[in-house]
From TrEMBL:
Signal peptide region: none
Every SsuA/THI5-like domain range: 106-253
Superkingdom, taxonomy of origin: Bacteria
Entries under PANTHER family matching the protein: ABC TRANSPORTER SUBSTRATE-BINDING PROTEIN, ALIPHATIC SULFONATES-BINDING PROTEIN-RELATED
Alphabetical list of InterPro entries matching this protein: SsuA/THI5
Pfam families assigned to the protein according to its UniProt record, in alphabetical order: NMT1
Protein name: Putative ABC transporter periplasmic solute-binding protein
SUPFAM superfamilies reported for this sequence: Periplasmic binding protein-like II
Amino acid sequence: MLSRRAMLAGGLLGGLGLRAARADVPTIRLGSLPFGTSTWEAAVIKARGLDTANGFALDAVKLAGNDAARISFIGGQVDTIIGDLLWAARLGNDGQAVRFIPYSTSEGGVMVPGDSPVKSLKDLAGKRLGVAGGPLDKNWLLLRAQAKDAAGIDLEQAAEIAYGAPPLITLKLEQGALDAALTYWTYCARLKAKGYRQLVGAEDIMHALGVPGDVALIGYLFQDATVKEKPAAVAAFARASRAAKDMLASDPSTWQIVRPLMAAEDEATFEALKHDFLAGIPRRSTEEERADAEKLYAVMARLGGARLVGKGDALPPDLYYTGRNG
């Protein structure tokens, strides 16, 4: 039998070995916004041990806003953030290679009160239209293109446009200061729960512009250097992200992990957010995503010009992460 001293020594060495093993596990630092849906997915990954099961440790780093996220990403304080396809493409075309993992096809849309007389894009002429973001917001550019094609109007000239942050635009719509609002999908979902109606969704606009599938215009971004430095960890993160989405889609109990993070004040809001999140899970191959994204990029480059897309006239060739382009 082992002596007590030997057992204690063995236990100590075993503990040191365990800590050493844990120290060797690569970490992926995810920069997330306080109310961003990446916090939902991160919570599922941690609660269900999907990072450990895939051989990495997820460290969710809270950031104050989009500007802080971009600065932290470019500066290397975090390994990945949820980012815009156009911004990632611009970085790549300007010489800073970035890899894009599709995160969601849910974008947003134009919301109007349930009893609004606005029934079509043409009806927006002469109306007060709030636009979340600014003049170069991708959803706004797509909406302008569709309004010109389908209704023959230039919304920038035909409507009274007010730009602003999504919370402000949503509040102004609820207060009656706006007739319609183009805003992001989480705000659309909350408005639907209050009886507001979606006039047109970003997905509908994409289809009308000749894109057959739903395109993920937001995704996880990784710098090329990070992918090359820890390829196994990045691949493991991609697997864990997909597994978390699959759990949310197939196991309703998983939503109990997420619900405290959703700021859903009632059941209708919770169900609307849940429905639109699940509807946005990317289901297509990288090749299909890229082919349709190229079409949308051409539209947005034409409308936004160099101010929007920078030097490039196409998506960088290795923009989409495949596990083979690290």
